[in-house]
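#help-structures

NK: newbie question. if I give both the sequence and a SMILES, will the prediction place the ligand too? trying with thiamine diphosphate
OV: yes, paste both and it writes out the complex. here, I ran yours:
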Amino acid sequence: MSMDTFQTYETAWCPGCGNFNILKCLKISLEELGKSPHEVLMVGGIGQAAKTPQYISSNSFCGLHGRSLPAAAAAKIANEKLTVIVDTGDGDSYGEGGNHFIHNIRRNVDITHFVHDNQIYGLTKGQASPTTSEGHITDVQIDGNMNTPINPILLAIASGAGFVARAFSGDTENLVSIMKQAISYKGYALVDILQPCTSFNKINTFSYYKSRVYHLDENYDPSDKLSAITKAMEFDEKIPLGIIYKEEKQSFHEKNVTLKAGVPLIDKKYNPKDVQKIIAEFV
Ligand SMILES: Cc1ncc(C[n+]2csc(CCOP(=O)(O)OP(=O)(O)O)c2C)c(N)n1
Ligand SMILES: [Mg+2]
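OV: that's the protein plus ligand as structure tokens.
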């Protein structure tokens, strides 16, 4: 398969934005996994990160703000042959989409969730997002952000996610490796990708992340939940990158009586007249 199976397009991102390398790593990952554009559905919500699906030549769906996960889950439930990837921001995933975040973890549909975590609402010019640090001054939070940030890694593990990873947009090799493992994982997989926003986050810059991130030790055991919880809480002077927690779990398709028979919903035969008869009972 050629390195140009997936085309990428001119973007509306600012120079120096971490999104560029995340897009590049996504393209490399899909190509190295041998995927073809028609087999992949990219889903975003609203935001700068959420534009990523529009910049790569696969199927794509742009949902409402915070609503990318339910759209992605529905697409996968209807057509399990698709590789479904949600590629969107921290605000979209954990703020407006916070409720969907928790409940999609519980559902465990086989989708991959890449969160471009720049710890800010970038598209709307720099308001505090759910991952913005306490005290961070913005044009809106003029006395500093008063809210305690959520820890998405810890929240995902606590909610029962089977694949939880943290990556950094400036670490290509590590990010590609994590992306490929997340896409290949059967079930809901979260990758929180730390990413500088050069225009609206002057605190969590490229060098801020670069000086803090380190790779998990090769002896680290991601199946040990208590160690994973401890690692998830490391988010200050040192920030671990890698697969923080991994567990094999039954996916939605493996549990659902209709879907586990292996016939995708889109291939099922149905007679519209039978449906009309049922609807008529309610008229
Ligand atoms: C329901 C709703 N609320 C708010 C907005 C305004 N809005 C659009 S994008 C955005 C922030 C996106 O932030 P994030 O998901 O972190 O993406 P980024 O731009 O930082 O990549 C907001 C608040 C909206 N479009 N719809
Ligand atoms: Mg953001």
